[in-house]
Amino acid sequence: MKPIKTWIVLTDAQTVRIAVNEGPGKGVYGHRAESLKAPPVTELSDAPGMTAASAGPNRGSISDPDLKGQAARAFASDIANYLAASLAKDSYQRLILIAPAAMLGHLRQALPSNVQAVLYADIPKDLAHLPLEQLPEFLKDVVVV
Q1: Cβ distance 58 to 51 under 8 Å?
Q2: DSSP type of residue 61
Q3: Going by C-beta distance under 8 Å and a sequence separation of 6 or more, which residues neighbour residue 120?
Q4: pLDDT per residue over 121-143, tens digit each?
Q5: What is the number of other CB atoms lying within 10 angstroms of the CB of residue 36?
Q6: What span, in angstroms and rounded, lies between the C-alpha atoms of 145 and 64?
């Protein structure tokens, strides 16, 4: 019987890592996904600008374009496309997503239905920089590694 290969995606808005588990007692190891890189945020400031008038009715703020949010959504879309392509190659059979709540929301929206079908669990935590040897401790209530 072929073991079920589980991909565990650890991501935030700037980084992504993929850990692999090949069944109970097998532990986890890293998978290289060098093509996944977060797009740069092009603006230097998060604060919205102001109009030229210093006082009076013409003073007002300029709407904030949420550049960080746009970059996070684009990165989530890139991750979703990578996961879909890898699933089509039968690289994994089960998926666990671990990301901060906002990024997890972006990922859920970006995942195609075939990837959603193999989504085993999603965990709203920021573990993107957690050493892989500590990952099984966080997954003990979700899956046996």
Answers
A1: yes
A2: B
A3: 6, 94, 95, 96, 142, 143
A4: 999 999 999 999 999 999 988 88
A5: 18
A6: 44
